[in-house]
């Protein structure tokens, strides 16, 4: 997922949440993107290797009463 897709997804989520309920005080959207390389070495040779990428998203909504929802 590139940065323009992440930005578009964030805008879409915020607009959807804010227009669904007038009782919402604020919303947060968190995105995480990480890449990793895992290499296992045994007896001076590569036993296993893995390259990967993890992506995640979370949404926090706080209503006008201050409650999380």
TrEMBL record:
Biological process annotations from GO: proteolysis
Domain spans labelled Metalloprotease TldD/E N-terminal: 28-65
An example molecular function term from Gene Ontology annotations: metallopeptidase activity
Residue spans crossing the bilayer: none
Pfam family, one: PmbA_TldD_1st
Protein name (record): Metalloprotease TldD/E N-terminal domain-containing protein
Species the sequence originates in: marine sediment metagenome
């Amino acid at each position: 997922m590139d940065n323009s897709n992440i930005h578009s997804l964030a805008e879409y989520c915020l607009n959807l949440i804010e227009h669904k309920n007038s009782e919402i005080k604020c919303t947060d959207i968190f995105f995480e993107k990480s890449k990793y390389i895992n290499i296992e070495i045994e007896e001076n040779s590569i036993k296993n290797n893995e390259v990967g990428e993890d992506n995640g998203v979370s949404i926090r909504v706080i209503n006008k009463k201050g409650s999380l929802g």
